[in-house]
Design brief:
The chain is mainly beta. Helices cover 13% and strands 52% of the residues. It contains six helices and 19 strands. The longest helix has 10 residues.
């Protein structure tokens, strides 16, 4: 049992993706539960602390927001079978795991956790900072003979600044940028699931361990007309560097000799703030948003179907207390519910995630919950 604890802990304290046996660092900072409820990050979503990650230019609005440590959990896959999966792995019960895999025509499982180590602040004078941590574990298991399992975590320090080029009552044009420094570690396995379970039992320290450190930049532009029509453009990772060291869990390496870069991404979107004065305060906010999230992908071979990069969503806030959210991302629905009592927040979301390259080829249902303090 101690060895199982060691390997599961390692899966949750390391972080990045493994592709065809090659290591490629990738930031796993996910949208907040609130944002997942209406379809993820939007370039015109400029309300709240996480807007700094959606679009650095949002800092040009000069609104103060803070993130305090809270618990943020995302789980994707056959949610009703999670207890059986945990029991099967903990007890090395291959019969139980075989049944779960067979009942679901293959197993796809994603777990993302932002523990009580994330906090930050955006100021009323254009600066922002954030320290975020995230652990994840994901598995794709078509059958007992083939399993692709990764686990990891990251710690990211983000510093941002935005400058409002034009700032009047009816017009705002802002440009901004964020700089991110990160550290990650990762372990992964690709092969027979029974062999993996045996390896966890007999010698988990032989699994590979990749450590990486690096930095990257994001840049954005935000335009608001009469606080009604909004346009945003964000360029993620225009310049980045990451250094990688490869070892094993039993013998980590700190020889950071491999140099790589993070994938670049260009996104653009528009939103409309629906007038709500006629509701006499019953509805305090009503926004409709749409984004295209990977423009570069349209010109790259082997990219996902372009329709998977399209997203749209809406959030309706009642009395600054209750929020209803609906949306679509990766051609799958999303919905969410939130309650805000002063600085205390509870957010819940259910949303789809497409793991394949074509719509509907490998969909996974996800559930998320956040409990914490923000303002």
């Amino acid at each position: 049992m101690k060895k199982i604890t060691v390997i599961l802990s390692t899966l949750l304290i390391s972080g990045s993706m493994i592709f065809a046996g090659d290591f490629k660092p990738e930031l796993h900072t996910t949208p907040s539960v609130r944002q997942q409820g209406y379809g993820g990050f939007y370039t015109t979503d400029v309300d709240g602390f996480y807007s700094m990650y959606s679009n650095p230019a949002s800092l040009g609005r000069r609104r103060a927001h803070s993130l305090f440590p809270g618990l943020d959990v995302h789980v994707g896959g056959p949610l009703k079978d999670i207890p059986e999966i945990i029991s099967g792995v903990s007890n090395m019960d291959t019969d139980k795991l075989t049944k779960v895999i067979s009942d679901n025509n293959g197993l796809k499982l994603d777990v993302d956790v932002q523990p009580l180590l994330s906090f930050g602040h955006t100021s009323s004078w254009g600066f922002g900072w954030g320290f975020t941590t995230q652990a994840f574990m994901n598995a794709t298991v078509p059958g007992m003979a083939l399993a692709d399992i990764q686990g990891g975590a990251e710690a990211v320090l983000t510093l941002g600044f935005a400058l409002p080029l034009i700032n009047s009552d009816n017009f705002l044009l802002s440009v901004g940028a964020t700089a991110k420094g990160f550290g990650q570690g990762a372990t992964a396995y690709n092969g027979n699931l029974v062999t993996f379970i045996s390896k966890m039992k007999d010698d988990p320290t032989s699994l590979p361990l990749y450590l990486s450190a690096g930095f990257t930049f994001d840049a954005g532009v935000y335009l608001s007309i009469c606080n009604t029509i909004n346009v945003g453009v964000v360029y993620n990772n225009p310049f980045s560097m990451a250094w990688v060291a490869k070892g094993t869990i039993g013998k980590p390496s700190y020889d950071f000799k491999d140099v790589t870069k993070l994938d670049q991404q260009l996104s653009a979107g528009v939103s409309y703030n629906v007038p709500v004065a006629w509701t006499n305060g019953v509805i305090t906010s009503f926004r409709i948003m749409g984004d295209y999230r990977n423009i570069f992908g349209m010109f790259q071979k082997g990219s996902r179907n372009p329709w998977l990069e399209l997203s749209c969503g809406t959030e309706i806030v009642f009395g600054n207390i209750c929020s209803l959210r609906f949306g679509m991302q990766e051609m799958l629905p999303a919905c969410g519910l939130g309650f805000k009592l002063g600085t205390f927040n509870i957010d819940m979301a259910v949303y789809g995630k497409e793991l394949g390259l074509e719509p509907g080829s490998s969909p996974v249902m996800n559930g998320s919950v956040f409990v914490g303090f923000t303002y």
